[in-house]
Amino acid sequence: MPTIPSCFRRACAFGLTAVSCAAANGQFVPWGWEIGGGPAVTVDGGTLANPWTGGFTAPQWSPVDFDGDGDEDVFCGDRDGGRILLFERTETGFVERPDWAAGFPEFAEWILLVDYDCDGLADLFAGFQNGVHVYRHAPAGTFTPVATPLYASWDFGSGPTDLPMVVLTLDKPSISDLDGDGALDVIAFTETSTTVYAYTGATPCGLDFVCTNRCYAMFDEGTEDNSVFIGDAHTCGFNVIDPRDTDPASRPEAPMRHAGGSLTALQLDGIGGHDLLMGDVSYGTLIALLLEEAVDGQDSTAWYDPAFPAELAHTGPADSVYCWKFPAAWPLDVDADGVRDLVISPNTDIETEDDRCVHFWRNAGTEALPVWEFVTDRWLQDGTLDVGRGAAPVFVDLDGDGRTDLALGNKERYEGVGNTPTALALFRNVGSATAPAFELMTWNAVDFSANQIESAYPAFADLDGDGDLDLLVGDELGLLHRYTNTAGPGAFPTFALPEFAVTDAAGTPIDVGQFATPQFTDLDGIPPLDLIIGEKNGTLTAYLACTDAAGAPTWCPWTSPLTGENWGGIVVNNALGINGYSVPCLYPHGGVTEVFVANELGAVEYFGTFTPGTDPGFLLELSAAAGGFQPGLRAAASLADLDADGLPELAIGIRNGGVRWYRGTTTAVAGPAAPSPLRLVPNPSAGPARLTGAPPLASVHIHAADGRQVATERTGADGTAALPVLPAGTYLVTTGGASVRWVVLR
Fold first, then answer.
1. Rounded-to-integer distance, Cα 605 and Cα 623, Å
2. Using one digit for the tens of pLDDT, what is the confidence trace for 185-237?
3. Which of 244, 331, 460, 656 is the most buried (most CB within 10 A)?
4. Which residues pair with 405 in a beta bridge?
């Protein structure tokens, strides 16, 4: 990141070493936080059970008795952001336990908790690069890798060979003991996404598997849609030795199609051992495959229900599952009646109805002969704040009563192709100055669709001097729009649009590129408040409150001789060396302003402080993730002391559509900084040099002594990078939150 100069200029002036700069680049933040402890939230007269989960997009579910009390709790791994949530079953319902989430390995694709070693603890199976990784669950609540990847024995005619098990990472496999022999079995789509692998467990309580069929259940799915072919219409292009279908080897391989299939094994019709539920990436319904049990374990499909459970036993208000796109099913005993129900969610985070993505179908029958009844499409989700996609929390006293309220914007709510409205929800603080509590006032404070505004991001200030707070909205196109509060001082606000595309002092619309995220703050030490704006490219742009020739208020662009139009020289961390999606979260404190900026990685970076009325120059990143938190992707954050203890609370909105709440706990003290892990060889150099000790695939920024960024490189997978030939001089090389001085000789 191009953070640098104040430290660098001092190093050059006083002859300090590069480690001195690196020490300033440690992990100091002014406060400490802990997750949880968020205030109560009331919506339509009911108190939300778990308001601060962060929301759901593509949740994956597993039963787990995490606390060992004999009942099933619930594990959730959301594909969107690789998020892990755990819910404890209590007498009054499920309660999120963020403290249980520590110790889980990172994941990015499918994830299931299943006990493979018969010790009573659910182990972790996860998709990785079209294979399977397995982690054993230890009694201490930690997970240890035991198979990365998991292997199976394959025999295509030349003898058995151990090869990695193939499970497409975009899919969802079924992992359970299908034949009751104490060994897990795995059912998963093949590489063609038309037929299905059967990996049969060979050792009870172990991880020995044999690929026993490449055309399991004797069906194939259409190459262009979710049509199902069984009986004489079924073809098997290529198989292992001695599956049930014994003569398919000469048939041509099925054509490739788009990946995307989910599978769940369970009993559906009371006949045989198990059946299958299948979801497809392009459809919102589930297909039930009803199997005939065979003595050799290679079962075949007798018939199928194309819109489960329409042709099976069911009751209630719906005949079929409809989950908009790519449904996957997870058996869970939700109501604790001893019979497994179904929780169904999208297996993708793309174009899903993400504010209604947890469907609960109760089993009103038995385990052997289920009767399905639709209950809700917002199970657990109806007890949390979830505004669809991209939550943007802003703490602000909306009605001037001295209590901090909550505004909650969003990027969008998916309601169909081309129908993704943005909205602004407002919550009044109905608690006290030391014990906040929020009550929903409106989900849609402004009709943004009337002006085709997308990805609205809110900021509040008294822009017309009438004593109440007006609204400024940044949008997806990088523009700003001003809404006047028509309610008056002391009333909860209502807004009307007097200025579409706010202009600066030159009459030019303020345009920061894309995804404008404004915040009002004091930059010049002179009232009224100024404006700082985040944007897609990860920088910050500032405007000072000023007046035009007629004395009317307007906005004057801020520039610096050191950083130009990039306020603070900040470029936030990002995923691919581009973008960043910066969201400012500046917090006035003790005569200075603390500079926090959220980014697309889901973290809130800390860049130290500046004094209003001064040029901040280049602000050095002091922490890549305030509090060590990274709760999801595309973070937006707000800080405020809501309980009057002198420590600000931190709310982080994420792409999943919800908010994570962090309670201020301590005033942090900077400890001794570790030496920089970066090394340059040779240093000094008379030509090119090589950087080592850096994070893999990270941006490397090189600044000259005057603060100019003169080059940008990128590290390889090994954390090294070749630096270019530069003119003689002293440079600072920065990457991954650390810096090292480089002296170039000629």
1. 6
2. 999 999 888 899 999 999 999 999 999 999 999 898 888 788 898 988 888 86
3. 656
4. 396
Strands (E), 341-401: 341-346, 359-363, 372-376, 389-396
- Cα 613 to its chain centre, rounded Å, is 37
Q: How far apart are CA 389 and CA 564, in angstroms?
A: 33
CA distance 324 to 348: 11
Distance CA 201, CA 209 (A): 5
Q: Which residues are CB-neighbours of 459 under 8 A, at least 6 positions away? A: 394, 471, 472, 473, 474, 518, 519, 520, 531
Q: What sign has the CA pseudo-torsion 642, 644, 645, 646? A: positive
Q: Which residue type occupies 2?
A: P
C-alpha span between 424 and 571 (Å, rounded):
28
How would you class 90 by CB atoms within 10 Å of its CB: exposed for 0-12, middle for 13-18, buried for 19 or more? exposed
Tell me how far apart the alpha carbons of residues 154 and 241 are, in angstroms, rounded to a whole number: 9
Backbone angles phi, psi at 22, to 5 degrees: -65, -35
Peptide bond into 393 cis (omega under 30): no
CA distances from 47 to 89, 96, 411, 437, 657 (A): 18, 15, 25, 10, 19
Q: Which three-class secondary structure string do you get for 188-230? A: EECCCCCCEEEEEECCCCCCCEEEEECCCECEEECCCCCCEEE
3-state secondary structure of 264: strand
CA–CA separation, 450 and 382 (whole Å): 28
Q: How confident is the model at residue 295 (pLDDT cuts 50, 70, 90)?
A: low
- The answer to whether residues 659 and 670 touch, using CB atoms and an 8 Å cutoff, is no
Residue type, 480: L
CB crowding 649-666: b at 16 or more within 10 Å, else e: bbbbbbbbbbbbbbbbee
> What would the mean pLDDT of 564-580 be, rounded to a whole number?
92
Strands across the sheet with 689-692, in order? Answer: 679-681, 689-692, 721-723
DSSP state of 254: P
Dist CA 598 CA 489 (whole Å)? 32
65-96: per-residue pLDDT in tens? 999 999 999 999 999 999 999 999 999 999 99
3-class SS at 567? helix
Give the residue from 728, 622, 741 showing the smallest Cα distance to 691.
Answer: 741
Determine how many CB atoms are found less than 10 A away from the CB of residue 101. 16
